[in-house]
């Protein structure tokens, strides 16, 4: 006949007594108290502890990967923030330069307007000087008769 392992409550059910009475009976009769079950449970605990050690080693490897990736992400974030600051500074500089360019374009337009005005004035003065020189280059009798140095030379004296 085989050995059957029962808990105190199962033994109490079979003997029609309470689990405490079954425990006292096992103690009084010095019956074996689950030693094979305890040994198998201890073996199972040892196996689970070994698996736990393996999983902890694997987790530490993952932790190292995680820390390395976190450091890499932090470095990339710092670089991104620096690049963003550089981009903002470049945008501000571009805006300042664009404002300066607009101002310089306006000043250039003003200079061209002034140049054109002075050119017109110089051309008018040159024309006056040329007419004066042409009039002085006329023979005395044409100057006396009132001839003008223009296309009217063929028409005759100015009336």
Q: What distinguishing features does this structure have?
A:
159 residues, disordered C terminus
Question: What layout of secondary structure does this protein have?
Answer:
Elements: H1 8-15, H2 19-29, H3 35-137, H4 140-145
Verbal overview:
It is a single chain. It contains four helices and no strands. It is mainly alpha-helical and 159 residues long. The protein has one domain. It starts with 7 loop residues before the first helix and ends in a 14-residue tail after the last helix.
Work out the radius of gyration: 58 Å
How many helix segments? 4
Quaternary state of this entry equals: single chain
| β-sheet strand percentage | under 5%
Number of strands: 0
- Secondary-structure element order, N to C: HHHH
- Overall mean pLDDT score? 86
Number of domains: 1
- What is the overall shape? rod-shaped
Q: Sheet with the most strands? A: none
The residue ranges in which pLDDT falls below 50 over 5 or more consecutive positions are: 151-157
Structural class: mainly alpha
Task: Give the end-to-end Cα distance, rounded to a whole number of Å.
Answer: 162 Å
* Helix content percent band: over 70%
Write a short abstract of this structure.
The chain is mainly alpha-helical and 159 residues long. It is built from four helices and no strands.
